[in-house]
Write a structure and sequence with these properties.
Elements lengths: L1 H25 L2 H36 L3 H11 L18
Helix pairs in contact: 1-2
């Protein structure tokens, strides 16, 4: 997946540079703006990729540390079923 995104980003940057070269040659502001927007989209793609990659690692680590009863309580809350207090017994310790 990274290879595909990397190819797309390289293509976007090449296109942005081409647009900016044409903007300098023909003295057109609209081409320069288009090149800037294309380059910004390439940077945004890489930013979102890295943010989502870190988030997925965080979610995976968090899911491995949850007790088994936590999933049952979430399902019960989603479908509005009563949950017995003896069924869910765990403590959250924030900051550790």
């Amino acid at each position: 997946m990274l290879l595909l995104i990397l190819i797309m980003v390289i293509a976007l940057v090449a296109w942005a540079l081409r647009l900016m070269e044409r903007a300098i040659e023909s003295q057109e502001f609209s081409l320069m703006l288009a090149g800037f927007l294309v380059a910004s989209s390439a940077a945004a793609m890489m930013t979102v990729y890295f943010l989502m990659g870190n988030y997925m690692v965080y979610i995976h680590q968090a899911s491995t540390h949850l007790p088994a009863d936590y999933a049952l309580s979430l399902e019960a809350e989603l479908i509005d079923l009563p949950v017995e207090s003896s069924q869910v017994s765990f403590d959250f310790q924030f900051g550790r």
